[in-house]
Amino acid sequence: PALTFNNQNLINCISEEVQITGSYDNPLAQYNFEWTNPNGQILNYNGIDPIVTEPGGYMLLATDLENGCVSEYLVDVEMDIEQPEGIVQGQDILTCEQTEVTLNADNSSGNVLAYEWWDTDAAVLLAETVSQITLTEAGNYSLIVVDQLNGCSDMVDFSIDQNIEVPQIEAEIP
Questions:
Q1: If you compute the radius of gyration of the chain from its CA atoms, what whole number of angstroms results?
Q2: What is the model's pTM?
Q3: In the chain, which end has fewer C-beta atoms inside a 10 angstrom radius, N or C?
Q4: Backbone angles phi, psi at 97, to 5 degrees
Q5: Do residues 24 and 31 make contact, with C-beta atoms less than 8 angstroms apart?
Q6: Which helix (DSSP H) or strand (DSSP E) does residue 72 occupy?
Q7: pLDDT tens digits, one per residue of 74-132
Q8: Predicted local distance difference test score (pLDDT) of residue 128
Q9: Beta-bridge mates of residue 119
Q10: Is the dihedral of CA 39, 43, 46, 50 positive or negative?
């Protein structure tokens, strides 16, 4: 039997499983399908489109039940679960003179990144997914960077401190 398979077989952080989809040249023909996983174990599935959760080569033996012809196919399933790395940089202390701090995540690594800035109440600080934020309050915060190609993410916790103590001056009257 002549079979064709899709080449979009990628397991990632968005989808921990993938359905191998295939088609055959004669939809009226009767076939028997026997799949083996990358470890050589036979899958408990007798169709052309199994759902799999492991990367590697999946072997299919397809038998035409009318004429007994057997074809062998190898379908590769790849995995991309590489996590990005979030890095927060910038001044982290508010003072009487410096009432706001600007932080950036420009040195974060990954593919196409989206940025989510959060405060301690689990509230999103910016509606946009930009790599820079300006803060005016001390506290604990988080940055989540998301690789938009594979869906993997990294969270970085950081804090902004505050030093606004007014100097105390004591004067004695003679």
A1: 28
A2: 0.78
A3: C
A4: -85, -35
A5: yes
A6: strand 70-80
A7: 999 999 999 999 999 998 899 989 999 999 999 999 989 999 999 988 888 887 789 99
A8: 78
A9: 141
A10: negative
Residue 94 CB partners (closer than 8 Å, separation 6+):
100, 101, 136, 137, 138, 160, 161, 162, 163, 164
Tell the burial category of 10 from Cβ atoms under 10 Å away from its Cβ (0-12, 13-18, 19+). middle
User: Residue 10 and residue 150: Cα distance in Å, rounded?
Assistant: 9
Residues 6+ apart with CB under 8 A from 154: 83, 84, 85, 86, 108, 110, 144, 145
Please give the single-letter amino acid code of residue 57: G
pLDDT, tens digit, for every residue of 124-162? 888 778 999 999 999 999 999 999 999 999 999 999 999
Side chain identity at residue 17, one-letter code: E
Please give the structure tokens belonging to residue 136. 């005016």
